[in-house]
């Protein structure tokens, strides 16, 4: 999906800079959290700095550009430093008038921090992760999306079909796009219901707002409710409903529950071959010498560390199946989550899977481990446990069998409505 790149006079003026890497120009770029990488950092000096200062109408003492990858998304951070706070405030007002969205700029004493070549969500995440803004302990999101009432899916086609539907939009997509959507849809079956995770502390009937409204709601034991619709309207030939909801994510990634470990939470399913002798042996090998469930979980997460035993490659959104992933040693988030659930259950750890959105990036799949007496603890196998499940992991689908078809007809619009 293409994104509109937002630029400023300062950015335009520095597009001819050499691509050679340099040492980061701010101490916060030298000790980065997991998932953040500096690709280039350079000071802007001499006549070039003076020309930019003249265009911005404020004298600049220092100027630097740093290019980063933050949890898979790129961002450029410009630090514009003046000699006086009054000049910095003036510069801040100038940039605010150009950038509009406050996610893209911050005032810090005699400096203005500008986030460029990024979405507002990525800019905000970069500010949190690098310490340019205080990272909240709790975030409430508001989400709008249009989703299909899928019953069964061709998981290898799910991502491509979602992208094709989102790109086509509600109007006439053209013969080529319609044909591709029709072809990809052949591996799916559709019905009149949706299974969605109920946000904690919310009654199932109040969790989501739909258009059209559901005619029935059935709550299940796995923190899920099934919403049934009389006749879902069709978008590009696919039955779908609009949904709107808000949900809060905190930095613990823990969902309290009185649920006890059950045989079903250790069972094999068509997606998780827990009873396969080779996988049982692998789970035992990985967790050997680990005396507690927590230690076993950590060992499994470390075994799945990016590039260690599974490299991120192949088609985006893939779901090859556990044995294929381990044989090919490649895959993406759903593949890693399937491997984790399978190996964790084989090691005797009650586990299930979660789907939703990773704020500032894209759709994502991760897992939950049942910690008796506490609740469901989210873990992210793709991040090997080093990417903590907290304020960025927005869950809205849970599965204890592996069946989890999430088909977006329009990509979610996600806004932060409250932070604490």
Account of the protein in words:
- By secondary structure, the protein is an alpha+beta fold.
- It has three domains: 9-135, no CATH class; 140-245, no CATH class; 252-389, C8orf32 fold (Roll), CATH 3.10.620.30.
- It is built from eleven helices and 22 strands.
- The strands form six sheets. Strands 1-2-3-5-4 form a five-stranded antiparallel beta sheet. Strands 6, 10, 13, 14 and 22 form a five-stranded antiparallel beta sheet that branches. The protein has a five-stranded antiparallel beta sheet with strand order 15-20-19-18-21, with helices on one face.
- A hairpin with a 2-residue loop joins strand 13 (234-235) and strand 14.
- The longest helix has 15 residues, at 85-99.
- The radius of gyration is 24 Å and the shape is globular.
Features:
alpha+beta, 11 helices, 420 residues, C8orf32 fold, 5-stranded antiparallel β-sheet
Task: Give the topology, please.
Elements: H1 9-13, E1 36-43, H2 46-56, E2 62-70, E3 73-81, H3 85-99, E4 105-108, E5 111-116, H4 120-130, E6 138-148, E7 150-152, H5 155-168, H6 175-185, E8 189-190, E9 193-197, H7 204-207, E10 209-211, E11 216-219, E12 224-228, E13 234-235, E14 238-250, E15 254-256, H8 277-287, H9 293-303, E16 311-312, H10 322-328, E17 330-331, H11 333-346, E18 351-358, E19 363-371, E20 375-379, E21 393-399, E22 408-419
Parallel strand pairs: 16-17
Antiparallel strand pairs: 1-2, 2-3, 3-5, 4-5, 6-14, 6-22, 7-8, 9-12, 10-14, 11-12, 13-14, 15-20, 18-19, 18-21, 19-20
Helix pairs in contact: 5-6, 8-11, 10-11
């Amino acid at each position: 999906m293409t994104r509109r790149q937002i630029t400023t006079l300062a950015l335009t003026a520095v597009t001819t800079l050499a691509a050679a890497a340099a040492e980061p120009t701010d101490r916060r770029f030298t000790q980065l959290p997991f998932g953040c990488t500096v690709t280039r950092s350079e000071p802007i000096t001499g006549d070039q700095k003076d020309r930019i200062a003249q265009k911005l109408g404020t004298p600049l003492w220092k100027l630097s550009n740093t290019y980063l990858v933050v949890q898979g998304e790129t961002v450029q951070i410009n630090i514009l430093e003046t000699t006086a706070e009054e000049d910095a405030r003036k510069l801040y007002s100038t940039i605010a008038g150009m950038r509009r969205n406050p996610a893209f700029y911050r005032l810090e004493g005699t400096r203005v921090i500008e986030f460029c070549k990024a979405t507002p969500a990525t800019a905000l995440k970069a500010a949190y992760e690098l310490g340019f803004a205080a990272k909240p302990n709790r975030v409430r999101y508001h989400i709008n999306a249009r989703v299909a009432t899928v019953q069964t899916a061709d998981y290898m086609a799910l991502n491509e079909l979602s992208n094709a539907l989102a790109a086509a939009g509600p109007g006439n997509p053209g013969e080529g796009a319609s044909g591709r959507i029709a072809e990809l849809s052949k591996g799916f079956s559709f019905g009149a219901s949706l299974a969605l995770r109920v946000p904690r502390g919310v009654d199932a009937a109040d969790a989501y707002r739909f258009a059209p409204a559901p005619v029935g709601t059935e709550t299940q034991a796995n923190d899920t409710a099934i919403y049934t619709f009389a006749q879902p309207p069709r978008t590009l030939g696919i039955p779908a409903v609009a949904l709107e909801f808000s949900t809060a994510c905190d930095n613990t990634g823990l969902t309290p529950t009185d649920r006890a470990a059950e045989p079903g939470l250790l069972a094999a399913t068509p997606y998780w071959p827990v009873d396969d002798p080779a996988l049982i042996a692998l789970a035992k090998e990985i967790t050997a010498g680990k005396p507690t469930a927590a230690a076993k979980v950590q060992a499994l997460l470390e075994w799945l560390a990016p590039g260690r035993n599974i490299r991120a490659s192949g088609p985006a959104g893939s779901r090859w199946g556990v044995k294929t992933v381990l044989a090919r040693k490649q895959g993406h988030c759903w593949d890693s989550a399937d491997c984790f659930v399978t190996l964790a259950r084989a090691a005797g750890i009650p586990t299930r899977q979660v789907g939703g959105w990773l704020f500032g990036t894209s759709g994502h799949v991760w897992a939950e481990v049942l910690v008796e007496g506490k609740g469901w603890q989210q873990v992210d196998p793709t991040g090997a446990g080093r990417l903590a499940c907290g304020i960025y992991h927005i869950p809205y689908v849970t599965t204890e069998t592996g069946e989890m078809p999430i088909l977006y007809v329009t990509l979610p619009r996600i806004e932060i409505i409250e932070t604490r």
